[in-house]
């Protein structure tokens, strides 16, 4: 099983190298409603997921489903416009398959974004939270099974899953641009249901500030393979609230789109100083 995964990752990476000869040093994975960020990239090559050997296919509204190679802030980058989720029916290994491939392409730094529900009472819809840590107990760890030693150690350290020096650089960028940035803990869940009111309260009690259905598995594997990770959540709905409102995916996408210019500035400037 492990040998088959290695073979597939190597096959996919070899194919992508025939499509784009440069080595991208930074990769970006764009979350729900954040796909317009690609307009900031000087695009040199686009490869639809359905043309990439062994690649999953994105099935969620708000995820376009293509790999974009190009230049941003003077650096060669690759962006995943659309990610994969456990709730789509993919295994954890399939969810993180693209992260493995990104590493094999030469990526050193992985920037992650997501749409998340706020459980910190200080948060408002449209706010941006820099993820300083996460709680992964409610997701399936993608490293279960035989370890592939050439990719990373059996028991990877997760004491600093999101690099502090990147968080500090982002805070400086936000301050200079007048962008309000929170810093907090992300609680990963499987989805696809939004949380019950009791679950939101539990997530808040255990120490999280936001909750979402992605990012954590990608972060774990990126750390396993030695990449530096930076991640942000766009707060698109509020889980801790008084009114009896209902959360919809359409509202999540709308809030993410509204916050996108701030996120674009943050990522663009951060890539300059990486």
Automatic annotation (TrEMBL):
Nucleoside phosphorylase domain mapped to chain residues: 26-272
EC identifiers of the protein: 2.4.2.1
UniProt entry keywords in alphabetical sequence: Glycosyltransferase, Transferase
Domain of life: Bacteria
MF terms in GO: purine-nucleoside phosphorylase activity
InterPro entries: Nucleoside_phosphorylase_d (IPR000845), Nucleoside_phosphorylase_sf (IPR035994), Pur_Nuc_Pase_Ino/Guo-sp (IPR011270), Purine_phosphorylase (IPR011268)
Gene3D superfamilies the UniProt entry points to: Nucleoside phosphorylase domain
Pathway assigned in UniProt: Purine metabolism; purine nucleoside salvage
Known role: The purine nucleoside phosphorylases catalyze the phosphorolytic breakdown of the N-glycosidic bond in the beta-(deoxy)ribonucleoside molecules, with the formation of the corresponding free purine bases and pentose-1-phosphate.
Similarity comment: family membership: Belongs to the PNP/MTAP phosphorylase family.
Name used for this protein in its record: Purine nucleoside phosphorylase
Organism encoding this protein: Mycovorax composti
Gene it is expressed from: punA
């Amino acid at each position: 099983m492990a040998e088959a995964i290695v073979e597939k990752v190597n096959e996919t990476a070899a194919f992508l190298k025939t499509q784009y000869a440069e080595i991208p040093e930074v990769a970006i994975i764009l979350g729900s409603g954040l796909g317009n960020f690609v307009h900031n990239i000087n695009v040199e090559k686009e490869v639809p997921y359905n043309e990439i050997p062994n690649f999953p296919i994105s099935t969620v509204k708000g995820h376009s489903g293509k790999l974009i190679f190009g230049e941003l802030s003077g650096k060669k980058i690759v962006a995943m416009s659309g990610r994969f989720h456990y709730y789509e029916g993919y295994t954890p290994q399939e969810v993180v398959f693209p992260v493995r491939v990104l590493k094999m392409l030469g990526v050193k730094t992985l920037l992650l974004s997501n749409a998340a529900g706020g459980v910190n009472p200080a948060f408002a819809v449209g706010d941006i939270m820099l993820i300083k840590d996460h709680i992964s107990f409610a997701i399936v760890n993608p490293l279960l099974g035989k370890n592939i030693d050439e990719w990373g150690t059996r028991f990877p350290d997760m004491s600093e899953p999101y690099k502090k020096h990147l968080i500090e650089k982002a805070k400086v960028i936000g301050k200079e641009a007048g962008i309000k940035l929170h810093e907090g803990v992300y609680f990963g869940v499987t989805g696809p249901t939004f949380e019950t009111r009791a679950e939101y309260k539990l997530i808040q009690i255990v120490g999280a500030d936001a909750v979402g259905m992605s990012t954590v598995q990608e972060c774990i594997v990126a750390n396993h393979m030695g990449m530096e990770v930076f991640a942000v959540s766009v707060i698109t709905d509020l889980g801790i609230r008084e009114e009896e409102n209902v959360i919809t995916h359409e509202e999540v996408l709308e809030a993410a789109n509204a916050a996108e210019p701030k996120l674009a500035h943050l990522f663009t400037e951060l890539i300059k100083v990486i």
